[in-house]
Amino acid sequence: MYRVLVVDDEEPVLDSYVFMLKGCAGFTLAGKARSGFEALKLIHELEPDMVFMDINIPGLDGLEVIADVHKKFPAMIFVLSTAYERFDLAQRAIPLGVFDYLVKPVSKKTFLATLDTVREALQSREAVPAEMETPLQRFMRRTIWKAMGEGEWAAIRAELALPSDRGIVCILESGEAEPVCARLAELVSYKRHCVYDAMLDRGIFLISGELSRGDLEEMLDLALGELPPGGKKFLGLGDLRRGPELYLSCAAALRNLEDRRKQKGSQNHGVQDDERRLFIQLRRKIGAADPAELRKLFALVWGGVFAGQDFNLAKGKMASLFMFLLDDITGCYSNPDETPLFNAAKEIMALKDIAAWEYWSAAAFEKLLNEAALRRSGGPLPLVKAIAYIREYYADSALQLSTAAGAAQVSPAYLSRLFSDQLGTNFVDYLTAFRIEKSEKLIRESGLSIKEIAFAVGFRDPNYFSKIFRKLRGFSPSEFAERVERTG
To answer: What domain range is 346 assigned to?
Structure first.
């Protein structure tokens, strides 16, 4: 059973969410909060699996709350809600890993559909079961962040064999936390007793003993200098505290980490200005310049963003750019009747490495180019929607005029007339030509067999595919593959 915390300052909204939650299998209410500070308190106390978070709440706003806790609870899912859609809020939410963004009033259908998606995400996450955590992991991930009683601290100190009653907490943020933290702990342990735990892009260290913050900082700087170069590393130091008050050292380390990140950020304004200039250039040219030029510019943009930057931060920047480009082309974030072509933020933030990014971004950018070309042609909106639907679902062998008409919200007869009047062709011929075009690309690039390619582009019968290919191109798919191989 997944536990849900609902945060909203309006009592009717709280009651509505709680009522709808009761009708959704697999979820139960963990608690309710009406302000940012109350939400912070309950998140630490209850550790819910997901949080419905209103943005405009008293005290800390919803995004500030998430910014404070999302690194401590990386598996926790946050769904934002607000009374009106603001792109700047969605943009702030992207680097925080927010799962979804709902505009109030939220219908029951939308609410339950969101929970279905959340359930799938929670089930797919490979979180370490609590019973499999080591005592050290349990201490570093949860206990150290809260005030402890003397008896609890004495038991923990004995269990972990900590040599001193006092210590300093340090937090390291790095793109590859596990190997970096392991090496740093090894170097520190030459001089001081050190325990640590790494999770996602952060490691937390407890360095025991009577030591000054200045001496520790000098020692850590030397140790960091011995680590392999590459990637950004930010280290935040707490202050010396007794065990029951180590949570205060955690808080100080987080503040110091944020200060150092901001200080480093101020040194990167030149790089950020270059990024901003390229972003603006791409936005101005999309839909107007030659597609080949736009592809080169896009490669230059993302290459610069990912170079030497934390991978998650780079993904956040590119998610923002894609959302801007989607809005520039379709107006989907300013027109409630316009649906985005795809959920850029959700899809980008799910990518695991640079190879996954390259594969995803190439296809997504082509969608943007195709959509921009369609919009520029000034064709009727139903035709634009139908063509976009074809380009997304051409691989479905069941695709037909009626399904495309349904996507365009017009009758099949009307859509058929649009193809004839606007494009001088019919639906079947347009779809067939598009599938053959895609098959040529696969023959050039994929290494698949002709039979596999036929199925990949929506043909049920490979022999029929070969017949149509020959009819449109003048030679068979196999002959085309031989030409490609000869010409390299």
So the answer is: 271-487
Contact assessment for residue 178 and residue 199, using Cβ atoms and an 8 Å cutoff: no
Domain count, the chain: 3
Sign of CA dihedral 389, 395, 400, 403: negative
- Which two tokens mark 325? 């480009």
433 Cβ contact partners less than 8 Å away, ≥ 6 residues apart:
425, 472
53: part of which helix (H) or strand (E)? Answer: strand 50-54
261 and 279 assigned to the same domain: no
Two tokens, residue 332: 């989907």
Q: Does residue 23 sit in helix, strand or coil?
A: coil
- DSSP β-bridge partners for residue 10: none
Structure-block tokens of residue 205: 């260290």
CB atoms within 10 A of CB 361: 18
Alpha helices in 286-409 (DSSP H): 291-306, 311-330, 344-349, 354-377, 381-393, 401-408
Q: Give the whole-angstrom CA distance, residue 243 versus residue 245.
A: 5
What CATH number does residue 232 fall under? 3.30.70
If we measure between CA atoms, which residue out of 90, 102, 101, 104 comes closest to residue 324? 90
Beta strand spans in 58-133 (E): 77-82, 100-103
Tens of pLDDT, residues 250-281 = 888 888 887 777 676 554 444 566 677 788 88
pTM of the model: 0.36
CATH number of the domain enclosing 31: 3.40.50.2300
For 308-356, the pLDDT digits (tens) are 577 888 888 899 899 888 888 877 776 666 778 888 888 898 888 888 8
Helices (H) then strands (E): counts for the chain: 22, 10
